[in-house]
Amino acid sequence: MKYRVLYFASLRDRAGIDAEQVESRAGDARGLYTELRARHGFALGEDRLRVAINGAFASWEQPLHDGDEVVFIPPVSGG
Amino acid sequence: MKYRVLYFASLRDRAGIDAEQVESRAGDARGLYTELRARHGFALGEDRLRVAINGAFASWEQPLHDGDEVVFIPPVSGG
Amino acid sequence: MFRLSETPIDAVELARELAHTRAGACVTFEGWVRDHNEGRAVLRLGYQAYVPLALAEGERILAEARAKFVVVEAACVHRVGTLEIGELAVWVGVSAAHRGAAFDACRYVIDEVKRRVPIWKNEHYADGESGWLHPDNTPVE
Amino acid sequence: MFRLSETPIDAVELARELAHTRAGACVTFEGWVRDHNEGRAVLRLGYQAYVPLALAEGERILAEARAKFVVVEAACVHRVGTLEIGELAVWVGVSAAHRGAAFDACRYVIDEVKRRVPIWKNEHYADGESGWLHPDNTPVE
Description:
The complex is a heterotetramer, with 2 copies of chain A and 2 copies of chain C. Chain A is an alpha+beta fold. Helix content of chain A is 24%, strand content 28%. In chain A, strands 2-1-5-3-4 form a 5-stranded mixed sheet, with no helix packed on it. In chain C, the strands form 2 sheets. In chain C, strands 3, 4, 6, 8 and 9 form a 5-stranded antiparallel sheet that branches. Chain C has helices at residues 11-16, 51-68, 99-116; strands spanning 2-5, 25-32, 36-37, 40-49, 73-79, 81-84, 88-96, 119-125, 130-132. By secondary structure, chain C is of the alpha+beta class. Chains A and D meet through α1 of A and β4, α2, α3 and β8 of D.
């Protein structure tokens, strides 16, 4: 399936891109992150991240569908 | 002795004056208030008031001196 | 800086004086004249103050806030005289490196000002009556 | 109303929208860019946001504040992009009939915004380094 992945903060710096189309057989965000972490060498583990799917917070186990927008949310620091 | 007494809020309304010179034999604010309460018919008892002498909070028993400025402070309501 | 003002309070000008490159947080409190109190329609307010003691007590409260909380600047201005509905009656501003101290100090100052500073509020009601109020907004007599 | 702004925040204009004749209290919080953090000299900041989720989460927080506390108006604007020292990074304003609710709601909004809204601060230090920060202002990595 194809997913659109957006990167922010330290993940963006590490990946070197804001966003990418990903072709993957991962059926949830957990599997997808494992793949992308290996590819880009992300330092942050899943326990430090939250997941958003199509603009809403979601669980790591929520099934992904073709075309979903997936965002791994590093620890926030607004304000 | 002569004291200068200032009135505020409901005491001012009741006395009908902002301030007055008072000739009194009272040696402290407690005695002075007893006299003035009888004269002006103040509703507020001592337990509802604080005392200021020469611009600083003071006790009801602090000895008064000739020429002191005495203020009986009704419950405040700024803000 | 604690002041009493007979003219409208300029909150923008006051807030400017709180700024400092060390300060990361600024909390302000504004007390406005409401159109009602305890269920009665209010037309306007009058504030009386025993000026020298109000100034001294106000400065004492600001000094206490600076001692209790790690703040950069703390200031308060209170109106006296006649105020219409919606007018700014009291302004408190605190800047600090961190927001916890700014919130706590701002709250401390307005709570203590209302509790201790010799200022009295006289509400003028729509029914033609008026009355002096307690700190809890109930009538004095 | 929760907004993200790429241009300087006009706190005066925002505060005007909080006024209401029912409101007797207004508390505002301003977060300014400090010249230091954790002992390091800071030159400027950059804020990134995941915009649609930041807006949704910001509105959710304001709705929670309105449900938890008796307020008249509650609003928040957060800057994104590059900010210099002393610039206003985030503004929260709450009006209410009584000051307790205004303080508590304002504090709730800024605490939750810092904890939950997907906005990231990148500090640029005087020594040429930069780094993404945690909510507790320690570096991410």
